[in-house]
Design goal:
- A five-stranded mixed sheet has the order 4-3-2-1-5.
- It is built from two helices and five strands; from the N terminus they run ββββαβα.
- It has about 80 residues and is α+β, with helices and mostly antiparallel strands.
- A hairpin with a 6-residue loop joins strand 3 and strand 4.
- It has one domain: 2-Layer Sandwich (S16 Ribosomal Protein, Chain: A).
Length: about 80
């Protein structure tokens, strides 16, 4: 089973809110996931990012691939 760390969209129309999830590659965008590892709220200024660093490190260590957006969120969050 291949695992990907990506965003799952929540919120209302025009006011998106995202959860950062570890999921099977074949799952739908908002479908089943293995673990919820953070949140991303682009509606706030600056955008609010909360990540569970230990769980993200775990998933990356077992071979999970982050999406491009999640990769940039991780890089920005780890720099702070």
């Amino acid at each position: 089973m291949a695992v990907k760390i990506r965003l799952a969209r929540h919120g209302t129309k025009g006011r998106p809110f995202y959860r950062v999830v570890a999921t099977d590659i074949e799952s739908k965008r908002d479908g089943r996931f293995l673990e919820w590892v953070g949140t991303y709220d682009p509606n706030e200024n600056p955008a609010k990012v909360e990540l569970k660093s230990d769980r993200i490190k775990y998933w990356l260590s077992v071979g999970a691939k982050p999406s491009d957006t999640v990769k940039s969120l991780i890089k920005r969050h780890m720099a702070e």
